[in-house]
Design a protein that fits this description.
GO cellular component, one term: plasma membrane
Largest sheet: 5 strands, antiparallel
Bound molecules: adenosine-5'-diphosphate, magnesium ion
CATH architecture of the largest domain: 2-Layer Sandwich
Number of domains: 3
Structural class: alpha+beta
Enzyme class: transferase
CATH superfamily of the largest domain: PAS domain
CATH class of the largest domain: Alpha Beta
InterPro entries: 2C_sensor_his_kinase, HAMP_dom, HATPase_C_sf, HATPase_dom, His_kinase_dom, HisK_dim/P_dom, HisK_dim/P_sf, Sig_transdc_His_kin-like_C
Number of helices: 11
CATH topology of the largest domain: Beta-Lactamase
GO molecular function: ATP binding; phosphoprotein phosphatase activity; phosphorelay sensor kinase activity
Strand order of the largest sheet: 2-1-5-4-3
Helix content: 55-70%
Membrane topology: Multi-pass membrane protein
Order of helices and strands: HHEEHEEEHHHEHHEEHEEHHEE
Strand content: 15-25%
């Protein structure tokens, strides 16, 4: 049993909460119960005293005999279950003097009580309440003054034991303690069982997470109930799925990249072998050299593209931010393509909205995106295809678009053109151009979208102005 473990903490917590509840009942509720029970008892005693005293008053005023008074006192005591004491009030040397006149207690302990409440009642002329210890325990007392010809001549004291209140409360307290002990035991057991179940679920999730961390994406995260742990399990499952996707994308990328690199290298190797042949005529040799150069160029471009892409994805590519006239930039990049357009028998039309189209961006990177788009519009379309390059401000952003009236792209292919290495025709490209272009656009807080219409393909780069 580890002290820091979830299981121990939860068990201790449930135990502690129960303990606090029991202590609160013991030390806060039971004293209140005791005093309210005592108050109730005193109230009942007072009512009894007030109901029965007038009978004594009447007898005293009508000068009843001692026997008559004794009889009345003991009959009231019988009916009320209280000890009834009648005290006579006389004038002594030190003020009022009270002496017991009649008592329902007939045994010889008649002088065991001091009846201080009676003094109070005689002096103030009002009903007085008090307590006095006795051999049978605490007594509650109510003293009612009896007036005869205007002065207080007698005091009737009703006494009843309060000890049973204390006894009752003690009993209740004992029962609370017993129930509390049971409750604590139950809290311990329930806390232990519940926390063990929770700890077990957490451990399963932990094991699954370890499995994922070690590269095994077949971990099972049982959702169980729809509580926080269930949600955590679902989140972990989601994470596992995404990691698995990333991992398979990574593998695919490496496999494709190495394949793309190997093809031209083998081709170059083959041609070099052929060229070692002494018998080769000059013309063939020149052709071979040209092919090898082409392959080397392709390889170089592929290496540059791969490097760009990996830098972009790692976020280590530094972007400049400067005020740029995109109209001028578009014109310059389009001009670079004059020879390629010539070869492809195509015309490029520039549509610039306004004299200056200013934006804060990295001009080198925007030019790179434009080059990729114009290059595609020429390489993936038949000869003679017209290309339109436009630049315009579009409320709050700048839109650069390259469109061609080539055969277009199928919807299925359009979904995938931005994936690295995706090529849908045999134009011998590496399929990295659009992947790089989109990464660049996103790094510049812009976007690159395709509009694959039939007979017209448009790629649009949007940048914040
Ligand atoms: N203007 C276009 N017209 C038709 N197809 C295009 C166009 N631009 C791109 N594509 C398609 O998208 C694919 C991916 O383009 P890209 O990422 O630049 O790679 P690459 O040009 O090396 O093939 C191309 O192989 C081509 O099939
Ligand atoms: Mg391309």
């Amino acid at each position: 049993m580890r002290w820091g473990s979830l299981r121990t903490q939860l068990t201790i917590l449930s135990f502690a909460v129960t303990l606090v509840a029991i202590l609160a009942v013991l030390f806060y509720v039971t004293p209140q119960l005791q005093s309210s029970l005592r108050d109730q008892k005193m109230k009942a005693l007072t009512e009894t005293a007030l109901v029965f005293t007038p009978q004594i008053t009447r007898l005293v005023r009508s000068n009843g005999s001692d026997d008559e008074i004794n009889n009345l006192v003991s009959s009231i005591s019988d009916r009320t279950n209280a000890r009834v004491t009648l005290l006579a009030v006389g004038d002594g040397t030190e003020g009022l003097q009270l002496s017991i006149f009649s008592d329902s207690y007939t045994d010889n302990r008649i002088t065991d009580l001091r009846f201080e409440v009676a003094d109070v009642a005689a002096r103030t002329g009002r009903t007085a309440l008090g307590e006095e210890p006795s051999r049978e325990g605490e007594l509650g007392q109510v003293a009612v003054p009896i007036r005869d010809a205007g002065t207080v001549s007698r005091v009737a004291v009703f006494s009843a034991p309060l000890a049973d209140v204390r006894g009752n409360v003690a009993l209740i307290r004992r029962q609370i303690l017993t129930a509390g002990a049971l409750g604590l035991l139950l809290a311990l057991v329930v806390g232990f069982v519940v926390s063990r179940r929770i700890a077990r679920r957490v451990r399963v999730l932990e094991r699954g997470a370890d499995q994922v961390a070690s590269g095994d994406f077949t971990a099972v995260f049982p959702a169980g109930k729809d509580d926080e742990l269930g949600q955590l399990a679902a989140a972990l499952d989601d994470m596992q799925r995404q990691l698995a996707q990333l991992e398979s994308a990574r593998r695919r990328f490496i496999a494709t990249a190495s394949h793309e690199l190997r093809t031209p290298i083998f081709s170059i190797g083959g041609f070099l072998e052929l060229m070692e042949d002494e018998e080769l005529d000059d013309e063939t040799r020149r052709q071979f050299v040209a092919t090898v150069r082409e392959q080397v160029e392709r390889l170089g471009k592929l290496a540059t593209d791969l490097l760009d892409l990996s830098r972009l994805e790692a976020g280590s590519l530094e972007l400049r931010r400067e005020e740029t006239d995109l109209g001028k930039l578009t014109r310059a990049v389009s001009a670079e393509f004059a020879p390629a357009l010539d070869k492809h028998d195509s015309k490029l039309e520039l549509r610039l909205g306004g004299d200056r189209i200013d934006a804060v961006c990295d001009p080198e990177r925007v030019a790179q995106v434009l080059r990729i788009l114009i290059d595609n519009a020429l390489t993936h379309t038949p000869a003679g295809t017209a290309v339109v390059v436009s630049a315009a401000r579009d409320n709050g952003s700048v839109r650069l678009a390259v469109s061609d009236d080539g055969p277009g792209i199928s919807d299925a292919a359009a979904q995938r053109v931005f994936e690295p290495f995706f090529t849908s025709d045999d134009a011998q490209g590496s399929g990295l151009g659009l992947a790089i272009a989109r990464e660049l656009a996103e790094r510049m807080d812009g976007s690159l979208e395709i509009d694959p219409g039939r007979g017209r393909t448009t790629f649009a780069l949007e940048l914040p102005a």
